[in-house]
Design brief:
Blueprint lengths: L7 E7 L6 H20 L6 E4 L6 H13 L3 E8 L9 H6 L4 E5 L13 H6 L2 H14 L5 E4 L5 H20 L3 E4 L14 H8 L2 E4 L2 H9 L3 H14 L1 E2 L6 H25 L3 E3 L14 H8 L3 E3 L4 H13 L9 E10 L6 E5 L14 E4 L11 E4 L5 E10 L4 E10 L14 E5 L3 H11 L4 E5 L4 H11 L2 E5 L5 H14 L2
Helix pairs in contact: 6-12, 6-14, 8-10, 9-10, 10-11, 13-15
This protein binds manganese (II) ion (MN).
Length: about 500
């Protein structure tokens, strides 16, 4: 179901008419060649569309407004091939509302020492024109991404690609709708938040439904549909009976299959892309949705447990940002559970009572059916696995009362040293950057939650750029973090975002 629009990005080259038609013909040819090369690179997740060179106030304003009004345009890439007087850009930029990339590049890679004359200098002066343009962007306080370098350089292309994913996250954020079928868990602070402010800042619609309305949708799923999905589960996953009767086990699994289908139909019908549940408020549902929620997350839905709508929306957002990524390693809600404090092996077991997305699995998941230690329902079926090795980011969006803060932590996911024969949940095991002690101290100082939205496939830079576009504070915990500077970052945030 993870559907996003067929987004495109416009490539707008700035110039002026001072240098004559021949120069402008070169500018257009060069920018077309750059667009073709970017599209053929195979690096960009979305297509770049060439636009005629912007040389007048009127055309700039018209182009930016067309970009605003084109639902498939997720952002504009700008580059000043020559000098383009920046006052011509003011009105267009004032009216522009989508993500903006300033690609600071140059058509030629090397200075043509032997042939360079004044005509060449006038034609190839991005070093000059892009400074004029960047100045007005800064003066106007316009949030944008700046990418510097030669357009054929793979690193430059990768940066553009990364920004495109952020831009789609920015544009799609206001299409995220979270269904709450339970309130937040009683007495818990960190899963709470200001839903009005979340809609103002992020565009999220967060609505409550009585749990029994969705339970009715579950009950309406036919036995034939349910059994077909059970067969799919049995063909796709290993089954760990652990001494249970196979028929009884299968009945428990069928409950989750029915929940998956009922939930998905209800969400589709009402146009929601994320959902929260709460083990203490299940109405007529027979089991806490476990396997069902895991599968929905894998399909691209956002999820937050115990009513945590911020995490549900963030998981959905991060799934949008990674949509269609080749060799993606996965994105999931996670929860900090328990530590290994042995010297040299420090790390955090990440898990949840059930709901970890199988997209992050490093092994073939197996279905287990075990009692929950909380709540009062049947033993729920769930997928159990260990996760992949590698770098990832854990994010926590917290409501500080007067504002949101996004905490972004670089983590190193590791294979656990031993198996967990008695653990009935999926896990990830990671060590925060820069080291367990500093990373954990910084997280606690920042007020980070125990629920996180985690991904192997996004960078702190991408999430920080998204936060900047939303106008909220972002703090980074990474290889460069030290506590003294981190406290200063928090202090600056307190002053700036008050
Ligand atoms: Mn939880």
């Amino acid at each position: 179901m993870l559907k996003t629009r067929n987004y495109k990005f416009w490539f707008c080259t700035g110039s002026q008419d001072l240098y004559g038609d021949e120069c402008l013909a070169h500018v257009a040819a060069h920018s077309k060649e750059i667009v073709e090369t970017l599209n053929k690179s195979g690096v960009l997740p979305y297509e770049v569309v060439w636009k005629p060179t912007l040389i007048t106030n009127e055309l700039i304003r018209k182009t930016f407004n067309e970009a605003n009004n084109d639902p498939e345009c997720a952002g504009v890439i700008t580059w000043m091939h020559t000098f383009s007087p920046a006052k011509s850009w003011i009105l267009g930029l004032q009216e522009y509302r989508k993500p903006l990339l300033h690609l600071h590049t140059q058509y030629n890679e090397e200075i043509p020492y032997a042939t360079m004359d004044m005509d060449f200098m006038n034609e190839n002066q991005a070093a000059h024109g892009d400074r004029e343009y960047a100045h007005i962007l800064t003066r106007m306080g316009i949030e944008r991404k700046v990418v510097v370098g030669f357009w054929k350089d793979a690193k430059v292309q990768e940066k553009i690609a990364g920004w495109m994913r952020t831009a789609v996250g920015i544009v799609e954020s206001s299409h995220i709708r979270v269904m709450r079928i339970a309130d937040n868990m009683r007495n818990v602070a960190v899963t709470e938040g200001d839903k009005v402010e979340a809609q103002l800042k992020f565009g999220w619609e967060i609505d409550a439904y009585p749990v029994n309305e969705i339970a009715e949708a579950v009950a309406a799923v036919s036995a034939a549909d349910t059994n077909a999905l059970v067969e799919e589960y049995y063909s796709k996953y290993d089954i760990a009976l652990e001494g249970r009767d196979p028929e009884e086990f299968k009945k428990h699994v069928a409950v989750q299959a029915q929940i998956e289908l009922g939930f998905e139909r209800f969400l589709e019908e009402k146009n929601y892309q994320a959902i929260v549940t709460h083990f203490g408020d299940l109405g007529a549902l027979q089991q806490l949705p476990g396997l069902a929620i895991q599968r929905l997350m894998e399909k691209g839905y956002g999820f937050g447990a115990e009513g945590d709508w911020k995490v549900a929306a963030m998981v959905r957002l991060m799934k949008i940002m990674t949509a269609g990524m080749k060799d993606a390693k996965g994105t999931s809600m996670m929860e900090d559970y328990t530590y290994n404090l042995v010297k040299g092996k420090e790390g955090i077991i990440q898990s949840h009572m059930l709901e970890v997305c199988p997209s992050i699995a490093g092994v073939k998941p197996m279905i287990k059916c075990q009692p929950l230690s909380m709540g009062n329902r049947e033993d729920p079926a769930r997928l159990v696995f260990t996760s992949k090795e590698g770098k990832g980011i854990a994010t926590s969006l917290v409501d500080l009362g007067n504002r949101f803060r996004l905490i972004i932590q670089d983590v190193d996911c590791k294979l656990p040293e031993h198996d967990f024969p008695k653990l009935p949940t999926a896990i990830n095991f990671w060590t925060p950057q820069p080291d367990f002690y500093t990373g954990t101290e910084a997280w606690l100082l920042a007020g980070g939650a125990h629920h996180t939205a985690f991904s192997y496939d996004l960078t702190a830079e991408q999430m920080g750029d998204w936060a900047a576009a939303m106008g909220i504070e972002a703090v980074y915990i990474d290889k460069n973090t030290n506590i003294r500077d981190f406290k200063r970052d928090l202090m600056l945030g307190n002053a700036f975002y008050r």
